[in-house]
Amino acid sequence: MKILSRQRRLFGLALAAILRRRSRNLPLVLLYTALVFVFASVVFCTAALKREARLLLRGAPEIIVQRLVAGRQELIAADHLESLRLIPGVSHVRGRIWGYHFEETTGANLTLVAADDSRLAPGTAALGRGVARLLGADPGQTISLRDPHGEVHSIRVAEVFSPASELAAADLIEMPVADLRLLLGVPEGFFTDITLRVGNENERRVVAAKVRNLIPESRVILREDIARTYEELFDWRAGFLFWVFSSLAAAFLFFAWSQAAMIGGEEKREIGLLKAVGWELPEVLALKTWESLIIALACFLCGTSLAYVHVFSAGAFLFVPLLQGWAVLYPRFALVPAIDLPQIVLLFAVAVVPYLAATGIPCWRAAAAEPDELLRQA
Amino acid sequence: MRRRSRTAPWILSAAVAVIFAVWLHAARLERTAGRDRVETLSLIERLELSDLCLFPEAPHTRHPAVVDRHAAFRLHPLAFDPHPTGMFVRPPRPPGTP
Amino acid sequence: MIVVDRVTKIFDRGRPEEFTALSGISLTIAAGETVVLMGPSGSGKTTLLSILGALCRPTSGRVQVAGRDLTRMPERSLSLLRRRTFGFVFQQPHLVRGLRVIDNVLLPALPVSDPEEGLRERARSLLERLGLGCRAEARAESLSCGEAQRAALARALILDPPIVIADEPTAHLDTARAAELISLLASLPAGGKTLVIASHDPLVAEASFVERILAMRDGRILEAG
Ligand SMILES: Nc1ncnc2c1ncn2[C@@H]1O[C@H](COP(=O)(O)OP(=O)(O)OP(=O)(O)O)[C@@H](O)[C@H]1O
Ligand SMILES: [Mg+2]
């Protein structure tokens, strides 16, 4: 209780000291907050994207089998479906038909897919939000797509996917299987690739190995591999930003250090006074640490809250271009906070601890002098 | 010391309020996002999609299934990472477009 | 009891600007005694008081307070000595700007765990006695020089130290205020306090409670009166 009340009094004194040196602290505080903001934005952004990818990929097929010819993906024969179904552990096998479509007027690459269920009538399609936006197509209107023979197909828009699905389906055009075969030029008896569902997590690798034995010219892609690719991709991009950031951070720490090292005469006299009236060195340092800590915590809180608003309310408008890269068709989606304790601890460790060290050490050196000498400072 | 005992709680409660507001906001977003995610997941399962539409223009990332080992060498020289979506410069226009 | 034994203080030793501020001072001050150091500016009064008050260490020589050798004490014990044994009134008031007067007075007591209310009461009554009762809540920077010096005296007395060291306590005061301050100082020995004052104010030297006057010049004590 005594310790608590003493720390409370030290806190109050430190706060008064900070407010007293308002003009000296202001640029520091602004810079510090901006830095925490950038750093926290990157962390929040990548963490949110990574989590979204992880959660949504849970719905993806566990194994994808593709046929390679001369190192390139080719259509795979439907005959394989039967033999793949016989592999123990495989619960479901499906041939996918999908492909890219280069939309010439806008220059966008769209993805054409087909589903097995005949939800869509022949000659109709369901569009992803992004496609609908890009082509200005609403349900009921028609869009035209060109097939490999140069023939133009008019397709009626039956449906536009809900905005919620944009992260998965912004660039999709879903069509009935027969229409899509025609449009992409995939003959009957062939698929683009084959997907397998394997319920048991432990069997996936075994199944993949068996598929490779069964179809030697195949490439087998596991869902985990795709998920890992995403993680790595975001880590790479975030890493790039961190690299830029770390040099900024170093510059800032140097600034903070030099500011603390250039302790003004007034501040030195103050330390001298405290020592002269009987404060012990640890008590003086505790006061100074409180000062740094208050600044650091305030900047940390401001920076991270601003970053939060930036990423989760303002759509991370400063970073998404860098994380997403260039595109004609941008999916529009709101990021969902994926903030957890380790993340906050990481942010804290990176943002607060070095600052405390950078400001504490010069202060400690100054405070080690004799009170008389400190008091005589002009 | 009365002055600081007035300022300190004020600042502390402001900080707590900010944290609380963020937490509330995050919880609310998470709730609606949970619903959206269920919808998206059912779409993904129905269409057997295998990736996200984050980088729609990049075949490598839109469909990692078609990434091959040569991808990195087919990039624009100004690309700053081995994915074309990292480019700051647009790709050349297709022939025939103005 | 304070015993000063052949104390010298040399500033910037070994450099061209080397300066001997005190050369071989020996002096004994009994407990409860009141001593005034007089001397022209630059004679080393402040330096001597700083050494007595454990604010700096002498270059050579020894200082004993109540039988303990200050020059051999670790820094931590010196801090406790400054806190509990000495009350120091500096030549400049050295109040912390931005803090209220009463908080300035309470500054030495901030890290100690004495009951806060008692200390606050004591600070108020000290300020009252020094004629600053109505300024207790004012900011330190709004005080005049004389008021600041009196607040500094209150700060020196807050933890009730047995030895009070005052460096030019009346320097910024008019005669009436100086007389009041002297009468306050005069009440201290009655409480058993040892008082060491540096001053060239004749009012201090002539005050009835002063038991001994030491004249200083060029870092030496000339006469004991
Ligand atoms: N840190 C220092 N470095 C160098 N010289 C110093 C230092 N401190 C004091 N001196 C010198 O020591 C001498 C004695 O100083 P001191 O402050 O003790 O004088 P004083 O008797 O208190 O004078 P005044 O009446 O003006 O206060 C002065 O000449 C001063 O310039
Ligand atoms: Mg002096």
Any overview of this molecule?
- The complex is a heterotrimer of chains A (378), B (98) and C (225).
- Chain A has helices at 2-20, 22-57, 80-85, 129-135, 166-169, 177-184, 204-214, 223-261, 265-276, 281-312, 320-324, 341-351, 353-367, 371-375; strands at 63-69, 72-74, 76-77, 90-96, 98-103, 108-114, 124-127, 142-146, 152-160, 172-175, 190-191, 193-198, 218-222.
- Chain A is of the alpha+beta class and 378 residues long.
- Chain A folds into 2 domains: 2-57 and 229-377, no CATH class; 63-223, Barwin-like endoglucanases.
- In chain A, strands 5-6-10-7-9-8 form a 6-stranded mixed β-sheet.
- The longest helix of chain A has 39 residues, at 223-261.
- The radius of gyration of chain A is 31 Å and the shape is elongated.
- Chain B folds into 2 domains: 1-49; 50-98, no CATH class.
- Chain B has 2 helices and no strands.
- Chain B has helices at residues 2-47, 59-62.
- The longest helix of chain B is centred in the first third of the chain and has 46 residues, at 2-47.
- The model of chain B is unreliable at 65-92 (pLDDT under 50).
- The model of chain C has no long low-confidence stretch (mean pLDDT 89).
- Chains in contact: A-B, A-C, B-C.
- The interface between A and B is large, with 79 and 62 residues.
- The complex binds adenosine-5'-triphosphate and magnesium ion.
- Adenosine-5'-triphosphate (ATP) binds at residues 11-12, 19, 21, 39, 41-47, 91 of chain C.
Number of helices of chain A: 14
What structural category arises from helix and sheet content of chain A? Answer: alpha+beta
If interface size is counted as residues with C-beta under 8 Å from the partner's C-beta, which chains form the largest one?
Answer: A-B, 79 and 62 residues
Gross morphology of chain A is elongated
Residue share in helix of chain B = 40-55%
Bound molecules: adenosine-5'-triphosphate, magnesium ion
Tally of extended strands of chain A? 13
Estimate percent helicity of chain A: 55-70%
